[in-house]
Amino acid sequence: IQDIKESQPAAGRRDVDVDQLNLSKKKLTRLPDLSRFHFLRELWLNNNTISELSGRSLNCCLTELYLQNNNIPSISGALKHLTCLRVLLLHNNRLRGLEDTTKELRRMQQLHTATFFLNPISHEAEYRLHVIHRLPSIQVLDGEGEISGTRVGKPPAARSICPTVACVTPPGVESAERRRSFQMFNRERHRVLQSVAFGRRATG
User: Fold this and answer.
1) How many other CB atoms sit within 10 Å of the CB of residue 75?
2) pTM exceeds cut of 0.85
3) Could you say which of 72, 135, 164, 185 would form a disulfide bridge with 93 (CB–CB 3.0 to 4.6 Å)?
4) How many CA atoms lie within 13 A of 86 on its CB side?
């Protein structure tokens, strides 16, 4: 509770006025109850030792959630109500179960930036193509991508309390990857489309 009070942007602000909250590097082991911040949009919980998430603690209006560098083994049942999320950083945790992880996020149709690297799921077969297929709105995955011509990527080591996503570099989720993902996970439909495109039935 004290950490929350210290992290509120200005003294005297009501809970309802808080739209950003920085709880990074507070030695948190669990997610505090933040449900009273009804209009919270951006939340930093990175660089703690959080090992368990509770969906009841997070407001459904969140648009940016920073959970990187914790000890989180699963997000199942904790994030699916956050349908307004656009940015979700989860790298360097202990996430297992790629299918369960992407299933939890599938209702987030505005999610455009996500990180899962340095988790066990990032070593699963065809990890990147699987994520692109299951979460088609994603434009930047693991610090690789381009949004509306603005290069984006992994956050720099030094960053202000309010990091914006569009401040760094490398190249990323490209149309070729999306085609490969479609071909891999929609093989039958891909064959039908091929047969239509070439005016003949595609053969095995």
Assistant:
1) 21
2) no
3) 72
4) 8
